């Protein structure tokens, strides 16, 4: 039985797939299985995956209909046989010491391992390392190190090592209807007693000039679902580790919760606007307590419009439609609201 299962969801990444797979097969740590989950690719990605099964016995390929990256990762979890699991995206690549770093020190079962990430911008040929970790073992309840290292800000499922038994026994899976994958990381943190951090930067996260989850349109209902799940998971985690640092919580709310509420309102249509606006108004207390940048013009506009009972919902709907069709095309397409 291999020591680690490397799970790679694959979808239409023909130009990048070989670099990714080759970087995994060239690891100095060799006791692993590589699970390539082809999520209904329409290019040659599936065929390339099959080629590698003839080149290396550690490679296993699974072909499915297209259901999204979350479903592909869940299938990989179900098929994994190793004690430990790591995820790599199929258009990224890793240096040859990536897997060996995870096992520099002995690991307990109820543990998660973090490595740093190198973000590489394909268009501008620039790179920057994320998360300033040093080699340190954090023990439950993880405070104050949780704040110092901003552990909860690192919601990337990649560049981490998870114990398969912890995942299986607690039925931890990726939510297949939403794209906020930090929920997997936060849920896993609810069941562990140790966090191993490493300063190593061996995972290359490639920012490609292609359609990604962050650039796709998401419905208001999906954003509402995201907010509800994040709130529930964060509350559970805070209760477990007895965490109540208001300053750090404010950072988390401003990074992962309040923007989702704004996006839910921004993406409304004539079918759902009344329900979504009412949901946002029910969350006004979150803005009162946790919003740290009330001078931001976007938030000022949001608070003055959506929480104004004198403005009819149909008028606010028209403002949202104008914003989506005209204003957002003039300014940067990835601005907050």
Summary keywords:
alpha/beta; ten-stranded mixed β-sheet; 13 helices; 10 strands; 43% helix; disordered C terminus
The end-to-end distance, rounded to whole angstroms, is 48 Å
Percent of residues in helices: 40-55%
Q: Tell me how many strands there are.
A: 10
Low-confidence stretches: 330-337
Average pLDDT reading: 91
Describe the model.
- It is a single chain.
- Helix content is 43%, strand content 19%.
- It is built from 13 helices and ten strands.
- Strands 1, 2, 3, 4, 5, 6, 7, 8, 9 and 10 form a ten-stranded mixed sheet that branches.
- Strand 6 and strand 7 form a beta hairpin.
- The radius of gyration is 21 Å and the shape is globular.
- The model is unreliable at 330-337 (pLDDT under 50).
Q: Topology, please?
A:
Blueprint: E1 4-10, H1 14-25, E2 32-39, H2 45-55, E3 59-64, H3 69-79, E4 84-87, E5 93-94, H4 98-102, E6 111-121, E7 126-130, E8 136-139, H5 145-148, E9 160-163, H6 164-169, H7 182-189, E10 194-207, H8 220-241, H9 246-266, H10 273-282, H11 284-290, H12 297-306, H13 313-330
Parallel strand pairs: 1-2, 1-4, 2-3, 6-10
Antiparallel strand pairs: 4-9, 5-10, 6-7, 6-9, 8-10
Helix pairs in contact: 1-2, 7-8, 8-9, 9-10, 9-11
């Amino acid at each position: 039985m291999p020591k680690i299962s490397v799970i790679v969801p694959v979808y239409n990444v023909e130009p990048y797939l070989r670099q990714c797979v080759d970087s995994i097969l060239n690891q100095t740590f060799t006791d692993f299985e590589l699970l390539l989950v082809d999520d209904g690719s329409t290019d040659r990605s599936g065929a390339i995956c099959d080629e590698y099964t003839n080149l290396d016995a550690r490679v296993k390929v699974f072909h499915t209909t297209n259901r999204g990256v979350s479903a592909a990762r869940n299938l990989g979890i179900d098929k994994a046989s190793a004690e430990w699991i790591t995820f790599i995206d199929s258009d990224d690549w890793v240096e040859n010491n990536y897997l060996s770093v995870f096992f520099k020190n002995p690991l307990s079962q109820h543990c998660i391992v973090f490595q740093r990430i190198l973000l590489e911008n394909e268009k501008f040929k620039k790179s920057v390392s994320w998360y300033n970790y040093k080699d340190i073992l954090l023990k439950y309840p993880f405070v104050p190190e949780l704040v110092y290292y901003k552990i909860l800000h690192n919601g990337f499922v990649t560049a981490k090592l998870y114990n398969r038994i912890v995942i299986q026994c607690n039925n931890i899976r990726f939510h297949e209807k939403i794209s906020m994958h930090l929920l997997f990381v936060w849920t896993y943190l609810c069941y562990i007693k140790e966090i191993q951090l490493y300063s190593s930067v061996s995972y290359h996260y490639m920012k490609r000039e292609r359609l990604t989850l962050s650039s796709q349109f998401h419905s208001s209902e999906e954003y509402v679902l995201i907010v509800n799940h994040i709130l529930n998971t964060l509350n559970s985690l805070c209760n477990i580790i007895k965490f109540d640092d208001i300053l750090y919580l404010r950072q988390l709310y401003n990074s992962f919760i309040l923007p989702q509420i704004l996006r839910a309102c921004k993406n409304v249509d004539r079918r759902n606007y009344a329900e979504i606006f009412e949901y946002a108004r029910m969350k006004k207390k979150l803005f009162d307590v946790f919003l740290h940048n009330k001078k931001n013009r976007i938030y000022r506009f949001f608070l003055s419009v959506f929480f104004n009972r004198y403005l009819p919902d149909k008028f606010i709907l028209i403002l949202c439609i104008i914003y989506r069709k005209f204003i957002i095309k003039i300014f940067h397409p990835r601005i907050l609201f």
